[in-house]
Amino acid sequence: MNPEHFALLEEARRSLPNGFKVELSGDTIVMMVSPSGIHQRNLLVVRRQFDAHAPLDLMPSENTDLVSPKVGKSRNPDLTYLPESALDTTDNQVPAELATVAVELVSPSNPENDWVGKVRDYPLMGIPLYLLVDARQKTVTLFSRPDGTKYHRREDIDFGETLHIPAPFDFELATGGLLPY
Is the full-model pTM beyond 0.85? Predict the structure, then answer.
């Protein structure tokens, strides 16, 4: 994408009122409203496990814009882990390639954004792991091994099973505490 075009879209995104979660994917602006209680609870169940296994130099961040101007993408995962130095800013955006994982809880109102758009965008943005929790289907999916164009590995489990989260976290994610919609 032309950097000037991306800058114009980014300016439009930043001019929206607070309270909206906004992402850019090519020429598309995706807006979302605040999440439900189950969404927040499920995110906390996942986050606590990641927090317990995150390397000391990584910090959790919820709703930070991950930007990739070269590929025309700005995404805002529910949870990501970034080097501590990436968060030494007053801005709410960091380079996407610094993220070690993007964790998303599927929005019931727009599941295609998580299942199609982000599966397409996150490997382009250089994000090595994409964990997708779908409370509608009671599943958890991990996408990994990106090559800059797509993820080459996909692992699916049902709520109640465990899923191995690879380095730099290296733990078994327990999903028995997740609630369905």
Answer: no
What's the token pair of residue 162? Answer: 């465990």
Instruction: Compute the distance between CA of residue 139 and CA of residue 178 in angstroms, rounded to an integer.
Output: 10
Q: Is the dihedral of CA 61, 134, 38, 16 positive or negative?
A: positive
Exposure b/e, 110-144, CB count within 10 A at least 16 = b: eeebbbebbbebbbbbbbbbbbbbbbebbbbbbbb
Report the 10 Å Cβ neighbour count for 80.
28
Instruction: Say which amino acid occupies 64.
Output: T
Reported as a single tens digit per residue, the pLDDT across 140-175 is: 999 999 999 999 999 999 999 999 999 999 999 999
Kindly report, residue by residue over 85-127, the tens digit of the pLDDT: 999 988 888 999 999 999 999 988 889 999 999 999 999 999 9
DSSP 8-class letter at 110: -
Q: Domains in the chain, ordered, with CATH?
A: 35-64+76-174 (3.90.1570.10)
CA dihedral for 34, 38, 44, 50, sign (positive or negative): negative
Query: What DSSP designation does 34 have?
Result: P
